[in-house]
Design goal:
single chain; mainly alpha; 7 helices; about 60% helix; about 5% strand
């Protein structure tokens, strides 16, 4: 295992790695300042930053969506994860939900979502890309919120 020599001055032991490009080793603040003038981020680091930005945007959209649904259906927060018997019964009897569940496309989509490794991502994708699924979810939420007190 070799000793890392400063890539800037080629004179001293390099203790630090450039956080921007991840390629250059340097020994001091002075060498870092010299290197920083011509430094560009590594592709890997740039991809990681883009992924994190995308994850933050998704979290923000999820929060906005849940707040919008709560506002639309008169609640102050997301519905509980467990539905009451009354809510399940109301869903089963709702004519709009019944009609939507009978469609082959929705049945296939629900199977894909259920079999997905990341169900939350699959649900979010379906919500954004399939208007019929969005309508189905809106109808489910309408029924759930209407029967929230039972």
């Amino acid at each position: 295992m070799g000793i890392d020599v400063c890539n800037v001055c080629n004179d001293k032991f390099a203790r630090y790695k450039c956080p921007k490009c991840l390629d250059v080793m340097y020994c001091s603040v002075t060498c870092h300042k010299i290197h920083r003038e011509n430094c560009s981020p590594s592709d890997e680091l740039e991809r990681e930053r883009e992924k994190e930005k995308h994850r933050q945007e998704k979290r923000k959209r999820r929060k906005e969506n849940s707040e919008a649904w709560a506002a639309q259906y008169g609640g102050t927060e997301e519905p509980h994860t467990m539905l009451s018997r009354a809510q399940l019964h109301a869903i089963a009897l709702d004519p709009r939900v019944k009609d939507e569940v009978k469609t082959k496309e929705l049945q296939d989509l629900l199977k894909v979502v259920d079999g997905s490794r990341s169900r939350l991502d699959a649900l979010e994708t379906a919500m954004h890309n399939v208007p019929e699924f969005r309508s189905f979810v809106d109808n489910l939420l309408r029924v759930i919120w209407m029967n929230a007190d039972e």
